[in-house]
Amino acid sequence: MTVTGRTTLTPYFISTLSWVLASPFLYGFHIAALNQVQSALQCFKAVPEDPSFPPYTPPITNGFPVCIPMSNATFGFVTSVFTIGGLLGSLSSTHLMNKYGRKGAVKFNSAFILAGSILMTMAWNAELLIAGRFVIGIGAGVAMCVGPIFLSEIAPQKIKGSVGVLNQLSVVFGLLLAQAIGLAFSTPDTHRWRVVFLTSCVLCLAQLLLSAGVSDTPNWLTAVGRETEADDIASKLWRDHSPGADGEDDGRSTSSRNETTIAPLSVVDLFKMESLRKPVIVVLLAMFGQQISGINAVIFYSNAILSRVMPGAEGYISLGIAILNAIMTFPAVYLIERLGRRSLLLGSMLAVEISLIALALGLNGGVIALSTVAILAFVGSFAIGLGPVPFVLIGELVPFYAASATSSLALSLNWITNFVVGVGFLPLRDWLSSEDPTKPNGRQGEGQIFFLFAGAFGVTALLFAKEYKK
């Protein structure tokens, strides 16, 4: 296969790309791993009342309990501890990437997710679920830091953006697979829900075993003095057949080769260099905007709103949202090189802002049709730009020696914002609205929270547009 008729896409590049993309795939998988199996896992299908009172002892089959009784609060902690682990993983990723290389960091993230998945597959109680989810979060945090950088460093200059978008495409396909498997194996009174985590074990083992056939990126190999090996890997990744081609399309321009001679920076060092402040701020604003848009809150409401249109189809609604997310990410692979990063991201941000306002109006007015259209428009608008492009910027706006630290800082901010929005969403919604039994959801003014998201996101988008010039 060739790109613009000049550069050959080699089998080695495809295999390396596939291997790296397993990391964001696993991250996406575990975002949704608990969504469809909650009832079966939590014993709600076996015991309709709160299983924390009175005490409930589930039957044992094949050596494992068919479910794990826990309150909603406990299940909420099992879910949210993933974010805490993700933050720790992001904070540690700079050290891992600089000391063990991009490949080494990927192996670390896979090993952590494997360990956590084993714990959750064999869990007897909520404590093991919490421990497993936390360990998985650490691996996911590392995965989302190293993935975009690895992709950027193996992609040729002319399609760096398109290759970078594959990071988010893998995330949404991982989310889609988890939703599909969960829907198929959420049978009550059985422990088939464990298949979700067993699938993760198989994927992690495959990635670890296949790592023997993958080398580190040419940039990192050059930085540690293994220049001959770096040149060999670059030639295996890409072959340029242009007249007089000198191999500069292997992802290592002359400037990037020079950058590898500078020692990697720490997170603190990023703000000491004046030349790095603006690009780092741009990346941070993009990552902050991704979460302050309220994406997780919108998806939370998607089930509540769309189930009124399709009663009894809650599980299929979640799956449908995941499918829409995946479909709308595909155009970004093509558009990012045609429209450019800035235009695509700003267009996506504008559409997200309009969708948030429309959703707020729909919820406040009790107009289900408007709320439904707004949710679908939001998911599509997010997927085409705000979802994938911020990860692309990490590997492109900063030089090699600042990439690891910038990725760690940006993803840490992303995890923190995600956690704050997740914890504060329901209390803020309740504070900004009031109870009203005549409304479909029992509340008056439940759209106010989305006006708040629209305001915060709008300010972030304006700051981003000001800082990120062509």
From TrEMBL:
One of its GO terms (cellular component) is membrane. InterPro entries: GLUT (IPR045263), MFS_dom (IPR020846), MFS_sugar_transport-like (IPR005828), MFS_trans_sf (IPR036259), Sugar/inositol_transpt (IPR003663), Sugar_transporter_CS (IPR005829). Keywords: Membrane, Transmembrane, Transmembrane helix, Transport. GO terms for molecular function: hexose transmembrane transporter activity. It is a multi-pass membrane protein. It comes from the Eukaryota. It is found in: Membrane. It catalyses: myo-inositol(out) + H(+)(out) = myo-inositol(in) + H(+)(in). Belongs to the major facilitator superfamily. Sugar transporter (TC 2.A.1.1) family. PROSITE patterns: MFS, SUGAR_TRANSPORT_1, SUGAR_TRANSPORT_2. Gene3D superfamilies: MFS general substrate transporter like domains. The lineage of its organism: Eukaryota, Fungi, Dikarya, Basidiomycota, Agaricomycotina. Residues 238-257 are annotated as: Disordered. It comes from Tulasnella calospora MUT 4182. Residues 16-470 form the Major facilitator superfamily (MFS) profile domain. The chain crosses the membrane at residues 12-32, 73-92, 104-124, 130-151, 163-185, 191-210, 280-304, 316-336, 343-361, 367-393, 400-428, 448-465. This is Major facilitator superfamily (MFS) profile domain-containing protein. Pfam families: Sugar_tr. The keyword Transport applies.
